[in-house]
Design brief:
Number of helices of chain A: 7
Oligomer: homodimer
Radius of gyration of chain A: 20 Å
Number of strands of chain A: 3
CATH architecture of chain A: Orthogonal Bundle
CATH superfamily of chain A: Winged helix-like DNA-binding domain superfamily/Winged helix DNA-binding domain
Strand content of chain A: 5-15%
Number of domains of chain A: 1
CATH class of chain A: Mainly Alpha
Distance between the termini of chain A: 23 Å
Largest sheet of chain A: 3 strands, antiparallel
Helix content of chain A: 55-70%
CATH topology of chain A: Arc Repressor Mutant, subunit A
Chain lengths: 150, 150
Amino acid sequence: MASTAPTPQSTTSRRPDPLTLEVVELIGEVVARFHEDYESAAAEHALTGAQARLLSLLCLEPLPMRRLAQRLKCEPSNVTGIVDRLEARGLVERRPDPADRRVKVAAATEEGRRVARSLRESLRFAREPLAGLSEGERVALRDALRRMLG
Amino acid sequence: MASTAPTPQSTTSRRPDPLTLEVVELIGEVVARFHEDYESAAAEHALTGAQARLLSLLCLEPLPMRRLAQRLKCEPSNVTGIVDRLEARGLVERRPDPADRRVKVAAATEEGRRVARSLRESLRFAREPLAGLSEGERVALRDALRRMLG
DNA sequence: TATTGTTATACTCTATAACTATA
DNA sequence: TATAGTTATAGAGTATAACAATA
């Protein structure tokens, strides 16, 4: 591709070049749409965003309340309420930890896993828009995202 | 680039190919980091995410309460409270609309614009990670995102 | 009658601090 | 004493419904 002029400034400098600014803008758009899509998919399953995120985590593996808080980047006291509400609906259960009786391990129930799977499948964004890209473009996008995320 | 085998299924079909799944996963990562970064940048300015978004909108142009709700994709009743809190801090003001006395136009104050500018500059994510990409990669990323967003 | 903004209400998420039961 | 989870509390965002002022 045309790499005619060398970038005059690093992108970490105070005034990013127009290209970087546009990419930032576009990423903001993607973030907004993704978020919107996630919330509405959750709502279709009568879940809030936080509940959907927690349930999706537990769908991979059971976790102590403390670890859940770390993963969700919130205070442990909040996890109590979210798990309470999911447990009341039979999507999650609390199990004792034989090794440490202070610990409670949260785990998705069979129905919880079913709901999480359905939720995952109803996530349309980032799948439909991707359909417009060729395989080569998807590879390029993947590589750029990988490098961005370190 | 290698386009050896034709993609067996459309990306909108029930079972997306591994490449598409990975890109979805990566976008999810980007969304999470961006969101986190935005919230913490807002918090540095003693703003909530919703307040920061509303203020940023008003920084571009004054808007009636109703339009603000549409832009923020929430109910008009919520906007009342968010604007109340920003107005109490002198970052936003309500103006009458001469053409329609039912309407109140919200506008950023001078200080509001200053805070919004500072907020925008403290958004590190999507700028620092982008620094790791070559210009060619940023162009490829831009083009892919543009096409994704239609 | 319809529309704009607001108020009232209820629920969820959030952080902080204090509490309990274990370790 | 230190840690895991909970409870209590308060602030903010959200949707719904009802309301006053204006069109």
